[in-house]
Every structure is written in structure tokens, then in C-alpha cells.
Design goal:
Layout (H helix, E strand, L loop, with lengths): L7 E10 L1 E2 L2 E7 L8 E2 L2 E2 L7 H13 L5 E15 L5 E14 L17 E8 L10 H12 L7 E5 L2
Parallel strand pairs: 1-7, 6-9
Antiparallel strand pairs: 1-5, 2-3, 3-4, 3-8, 6-7
Length: about 160
Amino acid sequence: MADSNDNFYRHMGVYGICAAEGSLLVIQKILGPYTGRYDLPGGRLEKMESLEQGITRELREETGYTVRELRNIGVCDFSVMWRLQDSTIEYLHHIAILYEIDVGSDKTADPITSFEGQDSNGAIWLKLDEVTSENSSPLVLQAVDWIRTGVIPVAGRSFDYSI
């Protein structure tokens, strides 16, 4: 087995928590460690892009919604171990800059943007009581905790998706 340092990556991105009427806006993930799970809309910044520009762009690309209001609520991080298609284990340190997002309840989503590397298979409003550790990414679990308690966990957690 390869040394875990050979397959260690750190990812930092911006993510949106958009909640309304007991539901959370999530994407259906089709790439990466959260494939087949619900995830928060968001991702990496592009060159010369501010945090606010990044989350606004990512939300539009992945959900079809336009940000009406946003507010930075903090940062969380966690580690994820997952298995690549070639059975290699990858270790990921995921750092998430979180924003509370309002897309306006009267707006319906436009079609999501299609491009190479798009990792969203569309967005849905997922009822909070339907979120589980089996169907959702760590980001979605953190978002539900924040919605219910108003607190972003300080201590990082670990998730093993390699099984």
C-alpha cells in the first residue's frame, strides 16, 4: 500500500447554505469523493475571483439559481478518505468557507451550466429530516447542524468513504 502522503490533497472552496421551509438547496454530486451523495453548491475560486464572486458563480453554475443576498458565516474543515476508480485510496483535507444564501422564494432555477468538469447533476430542495450520513456529504451534514444550532463545529471530523 502506498504511503498516505502520496495521495493527500487539500481542497479549499466556497459553499452556500440556502435553506427555506424546512429544506436545504443541494446538488446531486456526480464527480469526486461525494459522487452519488447530496452536496452543497460551491467549489474552487477562479483566478482573480473574490469569495463572494466565487460563491455567486458556483451557485449559478450548479443550481441555476441567482444569489439575491449572501452572508459569510464562517469556516469548517474535515478529512475524507475515499477510493478512486482504480481502487487507490485518496486522503482529502477539505476546507469550506461557508455562506448563508438567499435566492428568493419566488424565483425558479434556470437550467444548470454544462461544461467539462461539471460535478452537479442538478439541484433539489432536500427536506432537512431526509439528510443522512449515507446520502449526504460532510458539508451537507455541517449545514444541517448549523441550521439547527447556529453553530459551525470548531473541531474537524473524519469521514471514511473508502469502504
